[in-house]
Amino acid sequence: MPKDTGIGASSKRREDIRFLTGKGQYTDDINRPGQTYAYILRSDIAHGVINGIDTGAASAMPGVIRVFTSADMEGLGGVPCGWQVTDKNGDPMKEPMHPILAAGKVRHVGDPIAVVVGETLDQARDAAEKIELDITELPAVMDMASAIQGGAAVHDDVPDNLCFDWEFVAENKDAVDAAIAGAHHVTTLELTNNRLVANPMEPRAAIGEFEPGTGDYTLYTTSQNPHVIRLLMGAFVLSIPEHKLRVVAPDVGGGFGSKIYHYAEEAFVTWAAAQIKRPIKWVADRSEDFISAAQGRDHVTKVELAMDAYGNFLALRCSTLANMGAYLSTFAPCVPTWLHGTLLAGNYKTPVIFTNVKAVFTNTVPVDAYRGAGRPEATYQLERTIDKAAREMGIDPIELRRRNFIQPDQYPYATPVAVEYDTGNYDATMSKAAEMADVAGFQGRKAASAANGKLRGLGIASYIEACGIAPSSLVGALGARAGLFECATVRVNPTGNISVFTGSHSHGQGHETTFAQVVADMVGCPEENVDIVHGDTSKIAFGMGTYGSRSLAVGGAAIVKSMEKIIAKASKIAAHLMEASADDVVFKDGQFSVQGTDKSVAWGDVCLTAYVPHNFPHDQLEPGLEETSFYDPANFTYPAGAYICEVEVDPDTGVVDVQSFVAADDFGNVVNPMIVEGQVHGGLAQGLGQAMMEHAVYDENGQIASGSFMDYAMPRAADFPMFEVDHSCNTPCTHNPLGVKGCGEAGAIGSPPALVNAVVDALAERGVTHIDMPLTPARVWSALNG
Amino acid sequence: MTTVSMSVNGKTVSGEVEGRTLLVQFLREDLGLTGTHVGCDTSQCGACVVHVNGESVKACTMFAAAADGSEVTTIEGMANDDGSLGILQQAFQDNHGLQCGFCTPGMIMSAADLLKSNPTPSETEIRGWLEGNLCRCTGYHNIVKSIQAAAATMQGQSQAAE
Fold this sequence. Notes:
The complex is a heterodimer.
Chain A: H1 16-20, E1 36-42, E2 48-54, H2 56-59, E3 64-69, E4 105-106, E5 112-118, H3 121-128, E6 132-137, H4 144-147, E7 162-168, H5 173-181, E8 185-193, E9 205-211, E10 216-221, H6 226-238, E11 245-248, H7 264-276, E12 280-283, H8 286-290, E13 299-307, E14 313-325, E15 352-361, H9 375-393, H10 397-404, E16 413-414, E17 420-421, H11 426-436, H12 442-451, E18 455-464, H13 472-477, E19 486-492, E20 498-502, H14 511-523, E21 530-533, H15 551-577, E22 585-588, E23 591-594, E24 600-602, H16 603-611, E25 626-631, E26 640-649, E27 656-666, H17 673-692, E28 724-726, H18 746-763, H19 777-784
Parallel strand pairs in A: 1-12, 10-11, 14-15, 20-21, 27-28
Antiparallel strand pairs in A: 1-5, 2-4, 2-6, 3-5, 7-15, 8-13, 9-10, 9-12, 13-14, 16-17, 18-26, 19-20, 19-25, 22-23, 23-24, 26-27
Helix pairs in contact in A: 9-18, 14-15, 15-16, 17-18
Chain B: E1 2-8, E2 11-17, H1 23-30, E3 49-52, E4 55-58, E5 71-73, H2 87-94, H3 104-117, H4 123-129, H5 141-161
Parallel strand pairs in B: 1-5
Antiparallel strand pairs in B: 1-2, 3-4, 3-5
Helix pairs in contact in B: 2-5
């Protein structure tokens, strides 16, 4: 029987009520007294020297309060990077200055040059048209391979455009080379992981406010992690101490990674609000977000997989060029390195692995983590290469994977790429997916398609991801400039209802519901007695935010830890009330009772006693019932699964029709199955979008050719069938109290190779061995017709 | 500036607007009805869909002045009179048809128009109808389910009434 409340129940989402009635409060829905409006003049060329900016005429326009350029911002810090990668030569990565407004040069289309602050947005926009720019255009650095060979430099202090040259695992290089040289067969594949635009439906926005009477600053922003923004902006950009800076991330309309980072616009509105002594609102329009919000992926990779005659994987060698864009975004260096190299073992026993990653500056929008972040790139390389290997070796693609899967009795399993998997069962999810997809019946369906002049293909992919990036000691050693724990305060109010203050941030994930399910389960109370508070640094002690599928595994664990402290203290109060030893008190279903007696006291009575301590063990305990915990995980979590995609290709048009998509995931324990399935659906759509249609395209001059929803192909409802998802093959995580693994990114990680493998399978009889994403009709047709 | 007057969610409202003021600006900024969202600038995403004289319209693509004298319904006008969720709204909650909620008002308004003209749409018809509404969270799966569920509920109610 499915549960109807608590952990395991598909509780309906409480946050839906405000979203369904138009009562959500997104940043652009907030207006502050005396508010002004910022319009940002951005570069329309990719690379150039700024000779002069004349703001005189603009400043004289109606309604203009001030016009700002970088000349007004001397002494402020640049936008910081939160992760340092070490070059193979031992040097730190190149970390050029990223000014809030362009100083000296513009380095990508969209680089902010000047900001007009006006009484209305229309007035600010009208005035910006009067700004006179004198910019000498320079050649745009666009192609990564040639960028590192010399020529034009994005940053004068990085003449070869090489941010870092990273090797992992350096000690394995010789062993990998030897294994490849002596292998029975080596499958080689060169592929591109196409650049994407995250495009959450809510564009970015920020409101800065300064209170002259107290010196307090407030920033409302579309962020996945308000405390991280407070730290980065306060400490490194504006020199505002944390206690004078409040950051609020209210309802946020999706993030997918792109709202993790600290952006220049946040720093600008916060700083400039103090200059003009009035609040300043900035809201990106969609076209502006296309040229200013961090983009994703953009790797070019060569993969070599060595096998023996039976298909056992012997060694894997990869080399990647990773595009950083024009500046280092907050976590950009981590994505192609520690979030990518460490996943190259996949679900397999490959004994030695070596990868080289060169990170390159180009005159494009900065690139950073996008749903999956490094793990989709690793999975795509592996799963495409394995599929090609299966064809070359004449082994069924499911069978080849099974021969190399890490087996259930091998956990904990230390991979050759520095991580240790705690649990998993890859055969189980593969079997489940094969059953759901009716793999056995595929040849019949293929014949039916052929009879209609269509090419049918079946694509297999396994994936593993590392979620809840941790522990802090490890990530610190790997270059993180922050810890990666989570914080939670549980406040039990006098009448027994509960306020939970979490450092996780919900922007679609449904934390207000799932976290309440966890707490209600532990107390034995109705879920509606628990409220989840998030997104405001003035309310929540601390937080690292939401990304990397970490919220339940890390943030949820912090809540559990606080709840355990609450129950321990409440048990002592209950023991006092019942005149018993605390050791004899058990707590179940909202009742404290003394074992072996009929004595009991209810949760509500204990809570009231904590706050009305007339009869209270003051010599042992303080009144009140509130606990804060910081949870720093012992390890990553490792969700994994098997995805199977079936497509039909029209050879006359190249159109790919997704006939079915099956996802069998192992997320460990599941708190709310309905929400988990929804997360998978969304991830699949983004992954299939990448595989089929999405592509951030730049021309040779650095102009983005896909800079609006007219040009960038966003997946629409008619592009997909109903998805079939399953999460029954669960191996709970062994090192967090809920046994959960994380589900937010899986769909986007496993689906691109499944789709591409399916299309290549359909086209294999016509000699096609690979097509780079996105598999648009034009590309598929071209592959078929030379 | 022009004076416009219209009925919004059953109430008569009026205001002074510039010729370039869009209906969505008038709703959000002058009337404070911020449930109608702006997700793009090319009339593609559908987060701003409202009803004008009973038909779904992208409020970013209509001038406020052009809506003078019209009857406008926004997401704020879709709940039942007692404040409870309407059938479509309830179906979206029941079927997890929303995640971040940003596209949701436009989805509801668009779906309401569909079900008015086609009370029993097929899955293909629903997916085709939503061509002008983008969602980045749900993969559309549960939005389609929600609309199917709402259609079934409305059918049941109309049959019960007969």
